[in-house]
Amino acid sequence: MPRRLAAALACLTLLPAMVPAHAQTLLAQTQPLPDTSPRSTGTAAAMAPLSNAPLPAAPPARGAARTLAVTLKQLGADAPFQLRGVDGINGVPFSVRADEVVTAAKLKLRYNYSPSLIPALSHINVIINGEVAATVPVPKETAGTSLDREVSLEPRLISEFNRLNLQLIGHYTTECEDPFHSSLWATVSNASVLELTVTPVALANELSLLPLPFFDRRDVRQLNLPFVFAGAPSPATLEAAGAVSSWFGALAGYRGATFPAALNQVPTSGNAVVFATSQERPAGIEMPAVDGPSLAIVPNPSDPSSKLLLVMGTNSADLKVAARALTLGARALSGPRATITKLDDVTPRQPYDAPNWLRSDRAVRFGELTPVADLNVSGYNPDLVRVGFRLPPDLFGWRNKGVPIDLKYRYTPRPTVDKSTLNINVNRQFLRAYPLRALKDEQGRATRLLESVLPDGSAPAHHRIDLPLFMLPAQSQLQFHFYYDYLKQGACKDVLLDNVKGAIDPDSTIDVSGLPHFISLPDLAVFGNSGFPFTRLADLSESAVVLPSQPSADDYSTYLTLLGRMGESTGYPATGVAVTSPEDVAKVAGRDLLVIGTTQGQPLLTQWADRMPVSLTGNTKRFTLTDVYSSILGWWNGADGTRNARAETQLSISSAGTDAALAGFESPLQSGRSVVVVTSNTTNGLHNVTDALLDPDRLKEVQGSLVLVRGKEVNSLAAQQTYEVGRLAPWTWLQWYLSQRPLALVLMVGGATLLLAALLFLSLRSLARRRKAGQA
C-alpha cells in the first residue's frame, strides 16, 4: 500500500509536466492562493520585501529526501501572532515546490495563553487550507507560561499553495461574556517553526515548464543557480549570461538570487544553466548538434533528479539571440529543445519605463499594483490592505508637497457615531486617519443619500493625500487599516455580528508624473536599493561592465549576481548590457560603468586612483573619510544636509585581512556618467559586497560614496556628492543650486545689494544735477 501511495503522489506531481502550457495557465489561475509572497493576515504582518528576516538559501542537493525548516517570521509574520477574542485567527501562506512531494510535516509551536481561559471550552486550532489539522489544549496548569509543543500535521492536507492559520477559540465564563474581553488572548511566537520533509520528483525535460525547475515561485528561499561556462567566456557570452541572470533575478524578486560561476565543470548536484557554442563545450555534458541559437533542458549527468538548461549557439552572437529568446519569450517555448529561427528586435526601452517602477508619464491605478481581491477586507479585526510600489530613485521633491494620491474607498457605515477610522501608514509609519461615518451622523447626510442608492450599501469616501517624498524609499508600501470601534451594549447583549467590510477602490491612483528626475551623485544607497543609475534604462542599454583582463570565477559570479539584483529592481532582463575589458573601456565611454575586480587584477583601479575614494592593494589600504552622520548643515539643507559632506582626511593603513569596498564617482571618460566600483584585496572578498546587497539589514548601511565591507560588517566612510544627473527647470535649478551653497547666496545677495545701491546713487546724483541746472 505505501508503494502505491508513493506512486500516486509521484503521478500527481508529474501532472503539470504532462499538460499543455495553456492548460497549465488555467490550472494556475484556479489555485486558492496564487500569491506566494510571504504575508500574514494579521495587522502586524507585512509583505516580505519589507521584512528583515533573512531567508535560508536553497541547498544544492536534490537527489534525496530532505527536511526544510522555516520560521513563521521567514514566512512573513513580522510580529508574533496576537490571537484575541472568542474567535481570534491569524496565519501565513506557505508553498511546496512543484518538483517535491511532502512526506511528513510538523509545526513546532512556541506560545502562551491567558490564565483566564476555561480549558473545557477553549483551545487553539492549527488549520491548513481550511481544515483543522490539530487542536492544542489550554490546561490551567501551564497557563501564562512560555510553552513549546510539537504538532504533527497530515501531509495529505498540504498542496502546492497552502495557508497555515492559528485560531483561538476562547471563553472565560459559562455565562454572558464580552467577545472582546481583555482576558481572551493567546500569543504564538513568530519563531515557531514549520518543518516539512520532502522527496524530490523529477520533472519532464520540457521548456514549457520554464522557469521550472530552475526557479519555482512556490519556494520562498533565496535562489542559488550556478552558471557553467567552457573556459574563459567571451564578452558576448557574458552579455548573454547577464541577460539570463537578470531574468532569473527578476523572477526571484524579494527572495534574492546568487549565481556562482563554474568554469568547465558541471555541478555534481542541483540545477544549473550551461552556456556552450560549437567551439566551447563544457566537459562532462553530452551536447546535441548545434545549428543555430538553441535552448534545451537535459538531466544533470551527475544528478538525474536535477536539470541543466542549455543555452547554445554556433558562436557567441547566437548565444545572445538564444538568451533574448529565453528572457523575452519563455512562455512561447515548448518541447525538450527549441531552435530560434527568427527573433525581431524589440522596441528600445525608454528612461524610467522599468515594469517594476511606477510610471513617470501618468497616474497609476492601485488595481495595477495589487490584485483587486487584496484590496478588500472584512471583519472587526481585518488584515491591512497593502499596496506596494517602487519609485524611480531620482525623483526630485525639494520644496514639493509630495507624491499625490487620489484615494477612494468604501466601508460598511457605522450604526452610530463612534471612533472607527481608516488609518493610513507608509512603510509602517503613521501618515493620517479618516473617520468612518455613521448612519446617524448629522454631518453625513450626503453619505446617507448616496448609501440609499448604492447596491452594496457601502459608504463611499474620496480624499487627496500628498505623500512626503522623504518617507518613500525606492521600495515602499502603503498600508490601510480599517479600524472598527466595538461598542459594548451591556451584560448578555454583546453579540458579535461580524458583518463589516472595507475596500480600497482599485481606481485610486498615485501619480509621480509631476516630479522631475534629478539627483546628486555618487549615492550608493540608490545603487544598492535600485541599481541606479544603471537601471535608468530597464535593459541596461546605457551601461557597461568592466571585468579584469583575466577574470576569475569570483569576478564572473559577482557580475552575474549584481545583474540579477538589477533585474529584481526593474523586472526586466538586461538585454542591452555591454561587457568589456580594461583595454577597451574607451569604446564604452558614453555609458555608465560598473567596474569589478581586485586592485591586482583590475588596472583601471590604478589608473583612476586619484578619483577613487578607496584603494585596496594587498595589506595596504587607503580611504577617504568624511563624517557621514554629521548634521551641521541640516538646518539649511533639511533632510539632505548630511549627504554631501566634504572630505575631511585621507587614511592609509597596512593590515592583514579581507576587505571589500563599494565606491562611486563620476566617470573620468565622460562628465555626467557614473562609475561604481566593486573591489576587494582578494577575489573571494568580492562576495562580501554582493552578500551585503542581498541582506535587508546590512543594505540599509550602504550609502554615500564609499562603503567598506568586512565580513558581516558594513560601514559608510564617505559621503561626497560631486556631480548631478537629470534636469530641472531653470528657476528651480537656480533655487536648488543656491540652497546647496549658502556662501554663494550671500555673495550674490551682497553683490546685488551693492549693484542696486550703485544704481540708486547714480540715479539720485543725476537727478540732483538736473535740479541744480534748472535752478541756474
TrEMBL record:
Keywords: c-di-GMP, Cell inner membrane, Cell membrane, Cellulose biosynthesis, Membrane, Signal, Transmembrane, Transmembrane helix. The keyword Electron transport does not apply. InterPro entries: Cell_synth_B (IPR003920), Cell_synthase_bac (IPR018513). Residues 1-23 form the signal peptide. It is a single-pass membrane protein. It holds the Pfam family BcsB. It is found in: Cell inner membrane. The keyword Ribonucleoprotein does not apply. The chain crosses the membrane at residues 743-762. Pathway: Glycan metabolism; bacterial cellulose biosynthesis. Its main location: membrane. Belongs to the AcsB/BcsB family. Tightly associated with the cellulose synthase catalytic subunit. Binds the cellulose synthase activator, bis-(3'-5') cyclic diguanylic acid (c-di-GMP). This is Cyclic di-GMP-binding protein. It comes from Cupriavidus pampae.
